Amino acid sequence: MFDRLEALLPLVTKPIQYVGGEVNAVVKEWDDVTVRWALMYPDAYEVGAPNQGVQILYEVINERADALAERTYAVWPDLELLMREHSVPQFTVDAHRAVGDFDLLGLSFSTELGYTNMLTALDLAGIPLLAVDRDASHPIVVAGGHAAFNPEPISDFVDAAVLGDGEEAVLLITDLVGDWKRAGSPGGREGLLLELAKTGSIYVPRFYDVDYLPDGRIQRIAPNRPDVPWRVRKHTLMNLDDWAYPKNPLVPLAETVHERMSVEIFRGCTRGCRFCQAGMITRPVRERSITSIAEIVENGLQKTGYEEVGLLSLSSADHSEIADIARNLADRYEDSKTSLSLPSTRVDAFNVDLANELSRNGRRSGLTFAPEGGSERMRRVINKQVTEEDLIRTVTTAYAGGWRQVKLYFMCGLPTETDDDVLQIAQLARDVIKAGREATGSRDIRCTVSIGGFVPKPHTPFQWAAQLDHETTDARLYKLRDAIRADKQYGKAIGLRYHDGRPGIVEGLLSRGDRRVGAVILQAWRDGQRFDGWSEHFSFDRWMSAAETALTGETVDVDWFTTRERQRTEVLPWEHLDSGLDAEWLWDDWQDALSDIAVDDCRWTPCFDCGVCDQLDTEIQIGPTGVVQLPMPAVRPSPVLATASDT
Amino acid sequence: MARNLPPDRDTAPTVQKLRLKYAKRGRLRFSSHRDFQRALERALRRADIPMAYSAGFSPHPKVSYANSAATGVASEAEYVEIGVAVACDPDAVRDALDAALPPGLDVVEVVEARTPDFANRLEASVWRIELPGVPPEQAAAAVAGLMAADESTVQRLMKNGLRTFDARASVLSAECAALDDADPDCAILTLVVRHGTPSVRPDDVLSALRSVADLVPPKPPRVTRLAQGPLDEAGTSVTDPLEPDRAG
């Protein structure tokens, strides 16, 4: 099929993103395997190719003798138009095979903003958009990723969804699909989906019925087959050291958003920030050991040639042995032009020490911290336990250590927030600059304030909260902007970055929507909506008019899904999807939030009964391990290529 | 603040310069110059080539690029020069680097640089342009028309805006043939084009053929640079630019 695509490539922008050929990519023989996966990250290649989740699943599947995996990404509108004109179907970049020919199409949804791109891909692949219209010749469409914790808005389009860690889940699905194919496909497509659903850990929306009350709320979500369980539980991978991926990281030729060797140093987070879906749905904390981290980094650098290592997690400074990890890696790569980064945002002086260690020889340009809330009260509501004193002490250490710029992340539109809470961000930024000037004796320092609109997410204590309407969000942000501009003494040293509140409303609709939102997504896509994460392609008006059309005759509308507060008794659309979090605990935590009561981290204090470890039979896995990392030799260019006369 | 001073000298000084000839083939012809730069720098690290590095906060490996072919254009003759901190065997570098680069970015030859002014030696290129869907007779007539003209003004959008320039004078020779008997409707042009400012590219010559003789290829042409180097005495072909280095 590459021939037909190739003829179109001279006519599109950045054609290299469609040709594959990445270092460490794998192309297996089609006829040598039983189960064939197409894996899609539903955004442009430059965003999707570096995604760790897809890269890991790609390796895990391709390591199996009986299966293969190839990757596919969203094509830009210029190529989409040409593909339609020339009847070129959605293709994989590895062997340029038609996506419609695979057994499975696995989609990784980090956010809800990939939903419309999924529809484009299905349509280009010749796969019916609605799952009920598919037959045995079409791939099983499986959704995963954080957004799959509420797949109800896309339940018309996907055949199945997986909650939680994907490594073991894709192997389980591969086994079941392989068995089913070898047995002669008993029961057809429906028979396979039933096998998947019976596991209790793969959600098949068609086997659940949703009933509604006259006022539009959900009355009941119940399985419509005897063998299908009432609740579907998430997957949790234990013992990260047994899963030392990526082993062969892909090195794209095209420029991408993350050009580095990434290693996940732990999974999960129990800091308990109430707005943070990732922290709630990935519990418990499971650390990778210091030795495994060092091996993954060294192997990855040799196989990729990357110049940067990113130590990833939800809060990397929280690894129990992070100081040793940072020192060992900094020692090892001191002379090899390899930079190390810790994209962490914890506000404390220890974090600055780590950043100093990792940037021994490099430029100290900017450090990022995330206080998230502007006032102390707000930070207690969201359970981000940072005092103003902590922040000032931290930034003072940073500026004194040679860092010129501090970035601060905040949110606007948090529950119980007032104008005053947001205006305190201006005061905080002033205090930061003042402290920085005192610490350095220089006026050459900056502070950038970056603000995002808060979107309440499923499976968090804020899942019941009213989202702030976009008009009020914008008004608050303008007041903050004016307050910073009016500051003659410090205003010029403070940068402000914010986006208008409208995209957040669409994200809110897709995050907490139910099955009725599927019609809105389909209508928006039919009206031309694509690439929702890109401001030049996103149209709020198109989404709102699509919602109006699609929800005609319903008792619910966009406001009902977004700016309406829910009560304890309401059946939420994801009620039957088990993240392990106990509903009572979530509700109590929401009530604590409304009373400004903070809660600690269970890694260092007794268990708070969030429910995850008990219900899912998992446990916190953290160090210190007591294992001492053997000193590794520093890396220097080897002389193997040197001529004899010089050695 | 003292620690914010960058190192003021090259951290790994150059002891030897190597000139590389490489090819950009097949689907990797869609890589841009920047794509190739990143791919090369990573391949140098994977291949463990002992690179020399520049001074400064973010030291860069010493690599100089010369006159690279445009995105979408294949090439059998691209050149790049690297500086190494430990003297290397050029053939070993060729083998290691070729193995480290993805198939389609192929290192053809490596020689030790023994002469200055390499970039100035790249006076002209030989281009092969396949024109699927264009009968050779039609292409030949168009080429004859262009070569008979004194000049042909074309326009191209460049970084600094739309530029208007003559595409005819730089075309030193142009020949036309059929691809093969199996595909009679695919003309092959072979052009020798002198480099200059602005540099006349194959697509500029195609623009000129369009304006002179209304030649509009129905499908995207496939362009390959076959060679680049010093012009020969007749001024109608190029010689090997690495020859002086090979001779010492």
- Judged by helices, strands and strand pairing, the structural class of chain B is alpha+beta
User: If you average the pLDDT of chain A, what whole number results?
Assistant: 93
Radius of gyration of CA atoms of chain B, rounded to a whole number: 21 Å
Beta-strand content estimate of chain B = 25-35%
Poorly predicted runs of 5 or more residues of chain B: none
Largest sheet of chain A: 5 strands, parallel
Largest interface summary: A-B, 43 and 45 residues
Count of extended strands of chain B: 10
Radius of gyration of chain A: 25 Å
Discrete helix count of chain B: 6
Q: For the record, what CATH class of the largest domain in chain B applies?
A: Alpha Beta
Roughly how many Å apart are the termini of chain B? 49 Å
- Specify the overall morphology of chain B: elongated
Describe the model:
The complex is a heterodimer of chains A (647) and B (248). Chain A has 647 residues and is α/β, with parallel strands linked by helices. Helix content of chain A is 34%, strand content 13%. Chain A is built from 21 helices and 18 strands. In chain A, helix 5 (115-125) crosses helix 17 (518-526). The N and C termini of chain A lie far apart (51 Å). The mean pLDDT of chain A is 93. Chain B has two domains: 2-113, 2-Layer Sandwich (Alpha-Beta Plaits); 121-229, Alpha-Beta Plaits (2-Layer Sandwich). Chain B is built from six helices and ten strands. The longest helix of chain B is centred in the first third of the chain and has 14 residues, at 33-46. The mean pLDDT of chain B is 91. At the A-B interface, helix 9 of A face helix 1 and helix 2 of B.
Topology:
The complex is a heterodimer of chains A (647) and B (248).
Chain A: H1 2-6, E1 35-41, H2 45-48, H3 52-62, E2 67-73, H4 77-85, E3 104-108, H5 115-125, E4 140-144, E5 160-161, H6 166-182, H7 188-198, E6 208-212, E7 218-223, E8 232-233, E9 261-264, E10 266-267, H8 277-281, E11 286-287, H9 290-304, E12 308-312, H10 322-332, E13 339-341, H11 349-358, E14 366-372, H12 376-381, H13 388-400, E15 405-412, H14 419-440, E16 446-453, H15 470-485, E17 494-498, H16 502-512, H17 518-526, H18 540-550, H19 558-562, E18 577-578, H20 583-594, H21 612-616
Helix pairs in contact in A: 3-6, 5-17, 11-13, 13-14, 14-15, 17-18
Chain B: E1 16-24, H1 33-46, E2 63-66, E3 74-84, H2 90-100, E4 105-112, H3 118-121, E5 124-132, H4 136-148, E6 153-158, E7 161-166, E8 171-180, E9 183-194, H5 202-213, E10 222-229, H6 243-247
Parallel strand pairs in B: 3-10
Antiparallel strand pairs in B: 1-3, 1-4, 2-3, 5-9, 5-10, 6-7, 8-9
